[in-house]
Design a protein that fits this description.
By secondary structure, this protein is of the alpha/beta class. It has one domain (41-145): Glutaredoxin (3-Layer(aba) Sandwich). Helix content is 30%, strand content 25%. It contains four helices and seven strands, in the order βββαβαβαββα. The strands form two sheets. A five-stranded mixed β-sheet has the order 3-5-4-6-7, with helices on both faces. Strands 1-2 form a two-stranded antiparallel sheet. A hairpin with a 2-residue loop joins strand 6 and strand 7 (124-130). Helix 2 crosses helix 4 (135-145). The chain is globular. Residues 14-146 form the Thioredoxin domain. One of its GO terms (molecular function) is protein-disulfide reductase activity. Belongs to the thioredoxin family.
Amino acid sequence: MTTPDPLHIVCPHCDAVNRVPSGRLGEGPTCGKCSGELFTGRPTDLSSARFVKHIERSDLPVLVDFWAPWCGPCRTMAPFYAQAAQRLEPRVRVVKVDTEANQDLGSRYAIRSIPTLALFRGGREVARQPGAMDTSGILAWVQRHS
């Protein structure tokens, strides 16, 4: 019997990179460094310092919500995004980036309107969708591009 290839999963709490067998993602894996849950069922807020590690070191697709606290549509979409996170994890890492606090990331990824969803795989952006969506819209969009 062969064991599944382990996946690299970045901890949403301490940013340590963990190796988890793909068949065990749904078993509530915890971080080997901080013992925190690797999947929380809610979006992880990332700063510029943490962002690169999460998109480049994770073997999972990473869904990013680029948003700002003053943005009405962003606030409207936030509960839908949180519901989508519950449904997408552990197959997709779900994160949020406040473009007001992390303007360098907004510039680096040429974010021209918010909210903007971006899907990354292997450190590269593979899809982008500007504008607010509800839970079913987010899930359908991710499924089309995963």
